[in-house]
Amino acid sequence: MTTLSLVIRPERPEDDPAIERLQARAFGPGRFARTAYRLREGAAERIDLGVTASVGSFLVGSVRMGPVRTGSVPFVMLGPLAVDPSFAGRGIGSTLTRAGVEAARQAGEGLVILVGDAPYYTRFGFTRIPPGRLTLPGPVDPTRLLWLELADGFCEGVSGLVEAVRPSSTTGV
User: Fold this and answer.
1) Between vectors from CA 114 to CA 110 and to CA 116, what angle results, nearest 5°?
2) DSSP three-state, residue 17
3) 69, 109 contact by CB (below 8 A)
4) Considering 2, 66, 79, 114, which has the largest number of Cβ atoms within 10 A of its Cβ?
5) What distance in Å separates the CA atoms of residue 164 and residue 43, rounded to the nearest whole number?
6) What is the pLDDT of residues 95-147, one digit of tens each?
7) Distance CA 170, CA 173 (A)
8) DSSP tag of 11
């Protein structure tokens, strides 16, 4: 197998069209029906926490994070994590996950949640959310609802319905 000259860098606003095309290749049109996508629909994005992977000028991977909350407790939701199918199995998703989590940690976030496969995400420190602690506004297999506490004790005050933080002209988000 050839070594990729992979470039990992923070997401930039001009990456958006390439990321949308990447997500279409990686997930297809059915992605819009999933609860995690529905939650993100029309929500703010934390572009400062987004990370991309490129080979040459071709964007082959991306991870995004969005601000969410339960009541007045804010945190972030990882996703989508997308890797071009022709580059799958080369560690790009792992690299992006680690970079995204580190960006959230450096930004002072207390918690990252996601909907995903526990066997994949547990190697990054994610664990299943205890039953009934958090719910999403739609159907989700509770074994796929995971979290990673970035600030000690943060999860103690987190429970309830997860809501996306919507863009606001007063908050600048």
Assistant:
1) 150
2) helix
3) no
4) 114
5) 6
6) 999 999 999 999 999 999 999 999 999 999 999 999 999 998 888 899 999 99
7) 8
8) -
Q: Where are the beta strands (DSSP E) in the chain?
A: 6-10, 51-55, 58-70, 73-83, 111-115, 127-128, 134-135, 145-149, 160-161, 163-164
DSSP 148-164: EESSTTGGGG--EE-EE
What is the structure's pLDDT at 169? 37
Residue range 51-77, pLDDT digits in tens? 999 998 899 999 999 999 999 999 999
Which residue is it, tokens 């002209």?
Answer: 169
Q: Is the pLDDT confidence value at 1 over 50?
A: no
Look up residue 12 and give its DSSP letter.
-
Tokens of 3: 């070594």
Whether 168 has a pLDDT exceeding 80, the answer reads: no
Q: How far is CA 82 from CA 61, 87, 125, 140, 159, in A?
A: 5, 10, 19, 19, 28
The answer to whether residues 162 and 113 touch, using CB atoms and an 8 Å cutoff, is yes
* Structure-block tokens of residue 157: 């005050």
Report DSSP state, residue 103. Answer: H
Residue type at 56 in one-letter notation: G
